[in-house]
Amino acid sequence: MDWITAIGFSGAAMGAAATGAMFPPGRWYDALSKPNWTPPNWLFPLAWTLLYIAMVYAAWRVARTPNAGPALALWSWQIVFNALWTPVFFGLRRIDSALLVIAPLWIAVAGTCVLFWQADPLAGALLLPLIVWQTYAFALNVSIWQRNRGAATS
């Protein structure tokens, strides 16, 4: 039964991660005005691979604890928001609308981190890099939006 649970969490994470392959940054993103603290493009897939591995392992650990339902429901919501952000930002090229996705994403990640920590401190700790990354991503999204307001979306 444990391996089926792990496969389920892995499938959800891979589905969210697949949006990065479906909607790569491309020339549009390269042409945007970005702050000098923007990471290089090669860092994003590396960071997300490590973050998704940690997210899956943390969810698997929490799934084995009593009363895991609320924590895993919130984990599911943050996966949905993760999957949604990339098509909105890179696919639709809607920097402003992406802010409407990343704000609840941050809340879902923070809540998941807290609930995971309560269920299994190691699982909660595994999500700390995710909350740091999401905070950074939120700030980057805001900065890019501010710098490119009124710019063409195509």
Structure description:
The chain is mainly α and 154 residues long. The chain has a single domain, classed as Up-down Bundle (Ferritin), CATH 1.20.1260. Helices cover 79% and strands 0% of the residues. The protein has seven helices and no strands. Helix 1 packs antiparallel against helix 3. It is elongated. It starts with a helix and ends in a 7-residue tail after the last helix.
Helix-strand blueprint:
Layout: H1 2-22, H2 26-31, H3 43-63, H4 69-91, H5 95-119, H6 121-126, H7 128-147
Helix pairs in contact: 1-3, 1-4, 4-5, 5-7
Outline:
This protein has about 150 residues and is mainly α. The protein contains seven helices and no strands.
Q: Which structural class is indicated by helix and strand composition? A: mainly alpha
Q: Please identify the oligomeric state.
A: single chain
Rounded to the nearest angstrom, the distance between the terminal CA atoms is 47 Å
Overall tally of domains? 1
**Largest sheet: number of strands, sense, barrel closure:** none
Low-pLDDT runs of 5+ residues are none
